[in-house]
Specification:
Layout (H helix, E strand, L loop, with lengths): L1 H29 L1 H7 L5 H13 L2 H22 L2 H7 L5 H33 L6 H9 L5 E3 L6 E8 L2 E8 L14 E10 L7 E11 L4 E3 L4 E4 H4 L14 H9 L6 H15 L1 H15 L5 H29 L7 H18 L2
Antiparallel strand pairs: 1-2, 2-3, 3-4, 4-5, 5-6, 5-7
Helix pairs in contact: 1-3, 1-4, 1-6, 2-3, 3-6, 4-6, 4-11, 4-12, 6-10, 6-11, 9-10, 11-12, 11-13, 12-13
């Protein structure tokens, strides 16, 4: 029997690897525009890192889909070549050739479990923070490569004639009408002899802009030089987001729930169950893919792939329904809804094909 298992394991592994590489390449290509957009102001390495992190975040979905496609293709080929018929005729139950898919599915489930509980949360955490590097945020938000610099979200705009590093000379600052630089004069245009921008080092939280020699060109009076402090968290602007359950490893989530420090324990447990559900998908889909391939023996591989979309659709419909039910029932057991809907399709199909 082990020779039969090895025979199908080789073909399953090759088909799964090829399918996964093709799908992962498509995801990488689709993430290029997002990576370039988010890495503005950085270098090529930053863009590549962002693209890779966004692609890795879809790893559980790619593993599941690639394995199901590989299972259907492998056993469809065997069914069309009458290999499965010959195995049945030899008195070998269909569970024996199917066991190769189950073994590979178990291996992928173990790998997916480790990835979902420990690796993917870290990837999910880092992919939104690659461009949060302090110096790059300064260059991105202040646009220091131009002679017209909007000073973050303060509303001030500065132009200059000469620049040496982070020292700007002969500057003009345009102030918003509702946020004047000097509350007494309320001037909208200021002339500044020198402006120094202090880029924060590691551990510091603010950017400091120090003007020197400020005067009102219209009234001809000097104005006190008041430093402008910009918190780094304000530079995040639109890309700033709070930490969520998806950013925490499963052991961290479980520790917060057990210590009663998590603000929404039902969502944390839901996230844990959801990860378990996704990790079990390959081993659950192994008999489904085998039965679909054997069912469509006379109709070809294309029909088998089309029918394989049904369990996938049921699974992701269950994912959406589980999230909706969580909002209404507050029960973390809703995370297992994908498995319930998948069982509605898988149990009758496998019962019919394996007992035939």
């Amino acid at each position: 029997m082990w020779k039969l298992h090895r025979y199908y394991l080789r073909e399953l592994t090759a088909n799964a690897a090829i399918t996964f590489l093709v799908m992962f390449t498509v995801v990488l290509v689709s993430a290029i525009s997002r990576g370039i957009q988010r890495s503005v102001g950085g270098d090529l390495f930053d863009a590549a890192k962002i693209i890779l992190l966004f692609a890795l975040d879809s790893l559980p979905h790619l593993i599941t889909i690639a394995f199901l496609v590989a299972t259907v293709l492998t056993y469809s080929r065997a069914a069309q070549d009458r290999e499965l018929v010959a195995i049945r005729a030899a008195g070998i139950p269909p569970r024996v050739p199917m066991m190769a898919a189950v073994l590979l599915g178990m291996l992928l489930s173990v790998f997916g479990s480790v990835a979902l509980h420990y690796v993917i949360p870290d990837v999910h955490f880092r992919k939104y923070r690659v461009i949060a590097d302090t110096v790059r945020n300064v260059f991105l938000m202040l646009k220091l490569g131009s002679d017209r610099i909007p000073i973050a979200d303060t509303g001030y705009v500065m132009t200059f004639r000469h620049r040496e590093g982070m020292q700007f000379e002969d500057c003009t600052i345009y102030c918003p009408s509702d946020r004047p630089f000097d509350k007494e004069n309320k001037s909208s245009i200021l002339r500044v002899e020198r402006v120094s921008i202090e880029v924060p080092q590691e551990g510091e939280a603010d950017i400091v802009i120090r003007p020197e020699g400020v005067r009102d060109p219209i009234k001809g009076v000097s104005i006190g030089s008041t430093p402008i402090t910009i918190p780094l968290q304000d530079l995040g602007g639109r890309d700033r987001r709070d930490d969520r359950d998806d950013d925490l490893r499963s052991d961290q989530l479980l520790a917060e729930v057990l210590r009663d420090v998590h603000p929404r324990p039902e969502t944390a447990v839901y996230t844990l169950f959801r990860r378990c559900c996704f990790s079990l998908m390959p081993v659950m889909l192994a008999p489904v893919g085998f039965c679909i391939a054997e069912l469509t023996r006379e109709k070809g591989r294309v029909m088998a792939l089309v029918l394989a979309l049904i369990p996938l659709a049921m699974f992701y419909v269950g994912e959406v329904l589980g999230a909706r039910l969580l909002l209404s029932t507050k029960s973390p057991w809703c995370a297992w809804m994908p498995m319930v809907l998948l069982a509605v399709v898988a149990v009758p199909l496998c019962w019919r094909q394996l007992r035939r």
